[in-house]
Amino acid sequence: MNKIILSCVLLFAGVAFSEIRPKLDLSGMVMVHAYSDWNTDEPKVTHRFESMLDLDFDLRFNDRWSAWLELEAMGMAMNGMEDMEGMDMGDESSMDPVNPAVVFNGAYIQYTRSERTFFRVGDLKFFEGIFKNYYDFGDPRDDAAGISQKTIRGLEFQWNGLQFDIGFGTAGNDQSCHYHFMFGEYMGMDCLEGYTYEVHAAYDLEIANQVFRPYFDYKSYQRKDYNELYAGLDVSLSLGNFAFHGLYGFHSVFLASDDAVSNHVLLVEPSFDISRFCIVGSLFYAFIDDPVRTSLEITSRPEYFFAFIEPSVAVNEYLSIGVPLELHTNSLDKKDDLGSVRIGGRFYFNVPDFKIDIISMVLVDIPYGDDWPSEGNKNDPSFIFGVEAMFDF
User: Most C-beta atoms within 10 A of its C-beta, which of 6, 95, 318, 356?
Assistant: First the structure.
């Protein structure tokens, strides 16, 4: 009898423990890239490569409380980087082409009230106006038409499409650099850390399954003449086989100063998909007050104008072939004559059931314009060969 009672107690204790024990979900992504570049005026071919492992730990205590943690390892090597081990790459980690280190990439605790209402405290990330169609500006940590990825430690509240974040800057987002100019010439800078605070707000307004997202972001450096403001509207429309992504963005620095610098950006990204045929495009243009000072600020705009279009056809459910056509200015200054045309082929192989993607490419880049320097053969056509392999789990 005692054995039966003891067995029942142990059984109920085991059931109770299994119900209160947190449930851990592990997910992530692995990425390996390899590229080769050949300038037609050089006998040698150079190469570069990147690798990344991203691990997300999602710990669920119950229906209300959960926690999230991210670890990341990234490494990169290219021609000329042999002596650059431990090079600081800025925002999140140090790049070591030989021994990439695993870095802590943030954590937060979340309280969920409902599917569309929750509260977070910890390390928060947000970005606005990412490039959805153009393959080379696809990582919001590096490029975005609105706001490239920011990291803060603070509070986030989301309610029925409204997002509100407040906190202080972390990693590369915590540095306040003040640039000194005299008679229009750059005279140097001084940098401080531990003084930045940021407020971010955005709202997903859904009308007939179309999304309009206004956003606002104010970053204080606690300096009278050096604060930063972002604002804009991101639009995502879908009409049958046609889709459209667009953005208007505004960015200004030195707000309280007579030397305030502002720029406006427009992004238009249409796409059309029918049967096995697809065509996507990106058109980006920035109106910049002062290209010299803008280039010295933290900017997510690598050039003031580019146009891209890529028609593609699906050979079967696993393989698609695209032909990208591109026009680039390669500068933030409209006075620079540094244009280039890029054309080639991209081959997409994917296994949807296993979330495996392999992309290979052969592109030719043809510079044009009078301002390309002859040193390093930068004004000669070059070929780019690449393979990108990624899988999620």
Answer: 95
Distance CA 179, CA 90 (A): 18
Angle at 142 between CA 137 and CA 145, to 5 degrees: 60
Distance CA 4, CA 149 (A): 59
CA angle 207, 213, 216 (to 5 degrees): 150
DSSP string, 201-242: EEE-EEETTEEEEEEEEEEE-S-TT-EEEEEEEEEEEEETTE
- d(CA 21, CA 304) in angstroms, rounded, equals 53
Indicate whether 19 pLDDT > 60: no
In which band, very low, low, confident or very high, does the pLDDT at 389 lie, cut at 50, 70 and 90? Answer: very high
Give every CB contact of residue 3 below 8 A, 6+ residues apart in sequence.
none
How many C-beta atoms surround the C-beta of residue 266 within 10 A?
15
Spell out a b/e string for 96-114, using b for 16 or more CB atoms within 10 Å of the CB, else e: bbeebeeeebbebebebee
Positive/negative CA dihedral, 254, 146, 136, 304: negative
Lowest mean pLDDT among 23-37, 61-75, 80-94: 80-94
Alpha-carbon distance of 201 to 203, in angstroms, equals 7
C-alpha to C-alpha distance for 363 and 376, rounded to whole angstroms = 20
Pairing relation of β-strands 46-60 and 205-207? Answer: unpaired
List CB contacts of 136: < 8 A, sequence separation 6 or more.
Answer: none
Query: Given its phi and psi angles, is residue 122 left (phi above 0), alpha (psi -120 to 50 degrees) or beta?
Result: left
Give the per-residue pLDDT at 370.
Answer: 87
3 state DSSP class of 20: helix
- What is the token pair recorded at 255? 């707000």
Query: How many C-beta atoms surround the C-beta of residue 45 within 10 A?
Result: 12
3-state secondary structure of 101: coil
In a 13 Å sphere around the CA of 311, the CA atoms on its Cβ side amount to 2
In degrees rounded to 5, what are phi and psi of residue 180? -105, 130
Query: pLDDT band for position 173 (50/70/90)?
Result: confident
